[in-house]
Amino acid sequence: MIELAVNAGRVDSLVGELAKLPAFLRRDLLVAWSYRFAFVGDLFNLAAQTLTFYFVGQMVDPSKLPVYGGTQATYLEFVAIGIGVSAFLLFGLGRVAQAVRGEQLMGTLESVLMTPTASPTVQIGSVFFDLIYIPIRTALFLLVVAVAFGLNFHAEGIVPAALVLLVFIPFVWGLGVLVAALTLTFKRGMGAIGLGALALGIFSGAYFPLSLLPHWLSSVAADNPIARAMDAIRTALLSNAGWAGIASDLALLAPLSALSLAIGLFAFKLALRRERRLGTLGFY
Amino acid sequence: MRAFASWCDKGRFSLPLRTSDVVCATPALALVTVTRAYGEKIALREVSLAVAPGEIHALLGPNGSGKTTLIRTLAGLLMPTSGAVSVLSMDASRAPQRMRQLIGLIPSGDRSFYLRISGLENLVFFGRLHGLRRGAATARARTLLEQVGLADAADTRVGYYSHGMQKRLSVARAFLTDPPILLVDEATHDLDPAGARRVRELVRVAAASGAAVVWATQRIDEIAGFAQRVTVLAHGRVTFAGSVSELVAQAEPSRYLLRLRNGRLAGSALLVALEQAIGPLGSIEVSADEFVLALADRAVLGEALVQLATGGIEILSCQPERSALEDAFVAVAEGATA
Predict the structure, then answer these.
(1) Better-predicted residue by pLDDT, B122 or A73
(2) A275: nearest CA partner in chain B
(3) Distance CA A64, CA A73 (A)
(4) 3-state secondary structure of B296
(5) Residue A229 and residue A171 in contact, taking contact as beta carbons nearer than 8 Å
(6) How far apart (Å, rounded) are the C-alpha atoms in residues A250 and A150?
(7) How does pLDDT run across A205-229, given as a tens digit for each residue?
(8) Confidence at residue A3, expressed as pLDDT on a 0 to 100 scale
(9) Which pLDDT score is estimated for B48?
(10) For residue B17, what are the CA distances in angstroms to A27, B31, B233, B246, B320?
(11) Contact B285/B294 with Cβ under 8 angstroms?
């Protein structure tokens, strides 16, 4: 009987915490809407990148590009997915860290932490808007590029690609929370994002096939989870391979995502505890 | 306002209180020999404090005395280096989330809101983090905005608010859930007299309904007739703990403002006459248009006035240079320095 009551209490508590997430969503939607020009600027940036790579693609010999499930990809098909996923990653990484940094700078971090809200709810809540917005933005981007440039994306690959993206979210989020923990501790963690961006650009295969790297480097880069996610999405959207083509990538990504998230959340918890102990939570 | 009994009935205070100034059997809030260090610097030294339900407890102290550190420690934003904090019989370190449900904090700074969204949306957001449903949070936020005089600015972005308006919004936020404990750090600092009075009235009503209030301030004048008990901090130590009247009793005013009818004497001649008349009982200082009588140790005011009158000085009025409370505060704070 007591055990049942305890469990019911936990469920109530969980439901109560989940009910707070829409409040974060509304807050961030209102804040994002107040920066309408940044919204539009971001879309223009994506469009400009795509246009640039469209012309670069005119010079690229398709035979240099990988074949996905027997389908030869064009450079624009290859790079559009690269741009979409890398933007997803960079945006996600940056926003998680910026959420903490922004709250520190505004002084609202302490206000939020003064509410009876569990630490994981604060962490999820801080990026809840982005967790919804960024996948939608990526999907919309790919859709618009596909329609505008007549790219040959397979409709049946959309669900598998979406699943890869879904499994990839905790990986990005985990890295983001880790950067946020560094930001909380060292106050400036954006340098780490810069390094991440550099590694992403070179070792993820976003803009060029990894096979062009020196052999020893390309074999290492091929196991980069980001490269695996990108490859899996390309396989899903550019070939008829279906679920079979992405199964091994999903099997690798799922545990890595869980690990990334666990490490990130643990690091954040430690960072928060340290700040409370030192009394520097509101410092920036 | 939620009846305090429902919070108190959960159990009795369990930590061993060691200070003589703790008067309530079941304090809503208690600090027991709390020390807080920032590296080498000790911000609080073995501070003990207990606040009863329904009590407004003033926390006085000069700049850097440790008031804000104490408030932040009570709020759970800082961990004590040693000692214990208890909220409604709960060890604060063991149930931080539950503790935050019971505390309303009005911080001293004004950087605590989202500047890009409206005051109403800010309050609704924080209300929802306190567990209110959207409808209830909105209704409560509107009521509070009305009470703090911000109804007209409800839909204005907080970025356009003045410091005083942000402070009033902060007060409204602290009352969102009618918490049984209110921690107030310099709430009236940025407010005009009418706004300050309104905030004091809100706090007074909350205390009358059972909330325990810690009111940190440097405005000594506002605690008379408002707070029941006072703790004075200086250099992180408690230098006084007791009732307001006990604090006033610490005051031994020795400086008085005199208003004189000069008659034939003026300027330096008047000053010389005053000095001769007062003799060893004190000295006379000239401050702008006023004369200040500074009594010597153990001199009695009546005796000094008789001496002046006998010397031909016509005294129209005589009043203490500072209020009794201010005198007491200075005496207690300076006593700690000495």
Answers:
(1) B122
(2) B78
(3) 10
(4) coil
(5) yes
(6) 28
(7) 888 888 888 888 888 888 888 888 9
(8) 59
(9) 93
(10) 43, 9, 19, 21, 39
(11) yes
Contacts of B124 in chain A (CB under 8 A): 23
Contact B203, B175 (CB under 8 A): no
Among residues B122, B112, B190, B129, the alpha carbon closest in space to that of B156 is found at B122
pTM of the predicted model as reported, rounded to 2 decimal places: 0.75
Which residues contact residue A82 at a Cβ distance below 8 angstroms, ignoring those fewer than 6 apart?
Answer: A204, A205, A206, A207, A230
Distance CA A69, CA A50 (A): 24
Q: Which residues of A touch B (CB under 8 A)?
A: 16, 19-20, 22-24, 26-27, 30-31, 34-35, 106-108, 110-118, 276-279, 281-282
Q: What is the ipTM of this complex?
A: 0.74
- Cα A241 to its chain centre, rounded Å, is 25
Q: Are A115 and B120 in contact (CB under 8 A)?
A: no
| 3 state SS of B61 | coil
Q: Are strands B212-217 and B56-60 parallel, antiparallel or unpaired?
A: parallel
Distance between CA A20 and CA B176 in Å, rounded?
Answer: 15
Name which of B235, B198, B202, B231 is nearest B217 in CA terms.
B231
- Least confident span in A6-10, B159-163, B220-224: A6-10
Cα B275 from Cα B92, distance rounded (Å): 60
Within 8 A of A117 by CB-CB distance, chain B residues are 97, 129
Closest CA to B202 of B184, B221, B220: B184
> Measured in Å, how far apart are chain A's first and last C-alpha atoms?
49
Q: Return mean pLDDT, chain A.
A: 82
Task: Please state the separation of Cα B177 from the chain's center in Å.
Answer: 23
| Pair of tokens at residue B115 | 């500047």
Q: What is the CA radius of gyration of chain A?
A: 21
**In the structure, what pLDDT confidence band is assigned to residue B20 with cuts at 50, 70 and 90?**
very low
Q: Residue B187 gets which letter from DSSP? A: T
Would you list the domain boundaries of chain A? 21-278
How many angstroms separate the CA atoms of A275 and A181, rounded?
Answer: 10
The total of other beta-carbon atoms located within 10 Å of residue B185's CB is: 22
Indicate if the pLDDT at residue B81 is higher than 60. Answer: yes
The amino acid occupying position A123 is Q
The structure tokens 């407004």 sit at B56
Residues in chain A within 8 Å Cβ distance of B36 = 279
CA atoms within 13 A on the CB side of B38: 15
**H-type alpha helices, A114-189:** 119-149, 158-186
- A-B contacts at Cβ under 8 angstroms: 85
Cα angle B49, B179, B108 (rounded to 5 degrees) comes to 65
Residue B148 clears pLDDT 50, i.e. is over it: yes
Task: Name the strand (E) or helix (H) holding B50.
Answer: strand B41-51
pLDDT tens digits along A48-77: 877 888 888 888 887 878 888 777 888 888
